[in-house]
Design goal:
binds zinc ion, single chain, 28 helices, hpI Integrase, Chain A, mainly alpha, 5-stranded antiparallel sheet
Length: 747
């Protein structure tokens, strides 16, 4: 079926040649030692000074030191590091004969074999007193070949001390220098490829080189060693002897680092052999999208490891047409998600053709398609899935006809736009109830986030209404400032694939700056992302994963016991915050056009959905309202003024989000008001007719306050309140005249 994947013969010879050319000398070592500090391959060294073993625990200690630390009752790490105890086993000289001046290794009772003999011949007296008078037995001054052992060798035929010699013999008497070097390497970061067939070793070296060059994942030497063991157990000569599926099965349990390394290595070797691009991928029945250049997700990132499974299409002719169609679609810029749903449509159609006993394109006519429509409606799945299963096939048939791919297609094989289920009319609101939002936004609950990055993402989602895909992929340099120095959050609208900006307040700006500092602390060379993925991200190139945030969000919601009005624990999706953000703004009378800009919707249709949801709220129109400042002067807000669209949105947004009991604060949200609690004397305070009752009440209260203060002789209070009274009088007067002018019937 697939002529290109031919495991035997000339192709493997060609592969060997390609491997020889590709693997660089520094990777072509029987024992590969990663450069210290290599972000992709180097295992970190133990935190204990002088210990060259690989750190294997989260605390940065090697196994031996971690065990010692646990035995001491897990003290503070600083305390432990100050006194880590003697050198760990395997780095230490073996026990030495207790007779002073004797450098031989111990044979028994703390004595070397010669002293032990003498002591036994002396009738086994008390050792403590015997050794004081014991004479020297040694002339051999040659030290053990083991680099950390200074014991004497037993005689001129030996190279190791008594006990190292024993170990060396047990190991089968290998080359002594090599044996010493091997012992020295135990526990350190290295990968041993000795004893592996030359081709397989080259393949593994090539895989290591790819991981090193790619720098997108951390590959601890321990994982590579486990992978090598698995490959050796499989008894193959090349990683390509097994299919990916076979390697997955060989890994048996859940695929962990070693198994993933093997699959990655196999993929790298196969790519080296076959190349990438359409010529290599098109003949395959499973297309790996990451092998096709130029295909990206909507987030502008390289394509993830998605596959298009044409092997699930039973009819060979449909499979061929489907592949041709998808190649055309992908080449013209179709997104990954749409391609996957097109292939899903093909698979479903194939299923139906099998059920209906259709095995030729010529048998597809309108009556048969109508049976397909009826069958699709019985499938599980939402309206969207059904729609794409119909529209996908409609487009396929249209393309076949348009390009003349197969003339046997009957003229009646047409699906019409009306065949798709009509879009839902009712608006489903996924807005989160305010009492749930109050729990989400409470500072105490936000502080329960263990991870400051996820805490900040949550705040950004709630306050800025971003999509989760935009928030987690925010660029490191995501702050912008306008001419007035007010901050904005720059983000990629992942749905429209364009850049957008939302106004933010100074508090959020400060939090973003702290996040930037945290990123630089962890990745001193910088990261392109504000929220880099915490694990397996040696150079910070990958952003936080979608599932990581959602998983942590779920955990956080449970830890905060966020519950609904019935006391049930709440399940929230990040997108609900976007709905909530939109509904809140519309409830605060922010004009739809401003909400559209803030949400960066392409058309006002989506924004209008939110407006419909909140139709029941009173629709006060800002444009119609008369705004009056404390001097009684009219204030107009000019959307066509010198401020750009976003800036204008910012001003309007600021007014609506800082509603005071008796008016609005004219300051953009970004500024903290220096006239706190003294709005009635504040030059930027704005009010309108809707606050007339409150203003009148306040006037009465102010008059009473002036009377009381005067009675108590508080002249400063009197003076202050008189200023407020004058302002209130001016504002009420202006609003009243204005109202009589506009609506003569108003009382
Ligand atoms: Zn250690
Ligand atoms: Zn001795
Ligand atoms: Zn020794």
């Amino acid at each position: 079926m697939n002529a290109l994947v031919d495991p035997a013969g000339s192709r493997s010879g060609l592969l060997l040649e390609k491997l020889m050319a590709a693997v660089r000398p520094e990777f072509r070592m029987p024992i590969f030692v990663p450069a210290p500090g290599d972000p992709a391959l180097g295992g970190a060294e133990c935190a204990v000074g002088g210990c060259d073993r690989m750190a294997s625990t989260q605390r940065g200690l090697c196994n031996a030191h971690a065990i010692r630390w646990r035995k001491r009752g897990r003290p503070e790490l600083v305390e432990f590091l100050a006194d880590p105890g003697p050198v760990v086993r395997g780095r230490n000289q073996l026990p030495q004969c207790t007779v002073p001046g004797c450098g031989y290794g111990v044979a028994g009772k703390g004595l070397c074999s010669r002293h032990h003999d003498r002591w036994a011949r002396a009738g086994r007296p008390d050792i403590g007193s015997w050794i004081v008078g014991a004479a020297s037995v040694g002339t051999s001054r040659t030290e053990c070949r083991m680099p950390f052992c200074a014991l004497w060798i037993e005689n001129a035929t030996k190279v190791f001390c008594k006990n190292h010699d024993h170990r060396w013999r047990t190991a089968g008497c290998p080359d002594p220098d090599e044996y010493a070097a091997d012992c020295r390497r135990i526990g350190t970061a290295h990968i041993d490829l000795r004893g592996i067939s030359p081709q397989l070793a080259l393949e593994l070296q090539y895989a290591l080189q790819c991981r090193h060059d790619d720098r997108s994942r951390t590959t601890p030497p321990q994982a590579v060693r486990d992978a090598i063991r698995q490959v050796q157990q499989a008894g193959v000569d090349s990683l390509l002897d097994y299919t990916e599926q076979q390697w997955r099965q060989a890994a048996r349990s859940r695929l962990r680092q070693p198994g993933l390394f093997i699959i990655d290595a196999r993929d790298a070797v196969e790519t080296l052999r076959d190349g990438t691009g359409w010529e290599a991928e098109y003949p395959r029945d499973v297309w790996r999208l990451h092998k096709l250049p130029g295909i990206t997700t909507g987030h502008g990132q390289a394509c993830p490891r998605r596959r298009l499974r044409f092997d699930r299409i039973t009819q060979p002719w449909l499979r061929q047409l489907g592949k041709r169609w998808l190649r055309l679609r992908l080449a013209s810029g179709l997104g990954v998600a749409s391609a996957c749903s097109n292939v899903d449509a093909l698979i479903r159609f194939s299923e139906f053709l099998t059920l209906a006993g259709v095995d030729r394109l010529a048998e597809i006519d309108r009556p048969m398609l109508e049976r397909y429509l009826a069958w699709v409606n019985t499938l599980p799945g939402g309206r969207g899935a059904k729609k794409s299963r119909i529209s996908g096939i409609a487009l396929l048939l249209q393309t076949i006809r348009h390009h003349g791919w197969d003339d046997t297609l009957p003229a009646t094989a047409v699906l019409l736009p009306g065949d798709c289920p009509s879009p839902t009319r009712e608006v489903v609101t996924r807005k989160v109830a305010e009492h749930v939002m109050a729990q989400v936004e409470s500072a105490a609950n936000l502080d329960r986030w263990e991870d400051p990055a996820c805490r900040l993402i949550t705040v950004i989602l709630v306050r800025c209404g971003l999509r989760i895909s935009s928030a987690r992929t925010l660029a490191f340099d995501c702050l912008l400032h306008d001419a007035q120095g007010a901050p904005y959050l720059r983000h990629i609208n992942t749905k429209m694939r364009r850049e957008a900006a939302v106004p933010i307040d100074e508090e959020l700006e400060t939090e973003i700056r702290s996040q930037q500092r945290r990123v630089l602390q962890r990745w001193p060379d910088g990261s392109p992302h504000l929220f880099p993925r915490p694990h397996a991200n040696p150079v910070g190139a990958a952003p936080l994963g979608d599932s990581t945030y959602r998983r942590r969000l779920g955990r956080w919601l449970r830890s905060c016991q966020v519950h609904d009005q019935h006391g049930r624990l709440v399940h929230l999706t990040p997108h609900q915050w976007r709905h909530t953000f939109a509904c809140r703004l519309i409830n605060r009378d922010v004009p739809q056009e401003v909400v559209r800009v803030l949400l960066d919707h392409e058309s006002s249709r989506m924004t209008a959905h939110y407006a419909k949801i909140t139709d029941q709220t009173v629709r006060r129109r800002w444009e119609a309202a008369t705004k009056v400042n404390i001097n009684g002067e009219r204030v107009t807000l000019d959307p066509n003024g010198p401020l750009g669209q976003a800036q204008w949105a910012k001003t309007r947004y600021g007014i609506a989000t800082q509603t005071l009991p008796n008016g609005y604060c004219g300051l953009p949200l970004q500024r903290s008001c220096p006239h706190a609690n003294a709005c009635l004397t504040c030059p930027v305070f704005l009010t309108g007719p809707e606050f007339l009752p409150e203003l009148r009440q306040q006037r009465t209260r102010t008059l009473t306050l002036i009377d009381v203060s005067r009675g108590n002789g508080q002249s400063r209070m009197v003076e202050m309140n008189q200023r407020i009274l004058a302002n209130l009088d001016r504002m009420i007067g202006e609003i009243e005249t204005d109202q009589h002018k506009d609506t003569p019937d108003a009382s």
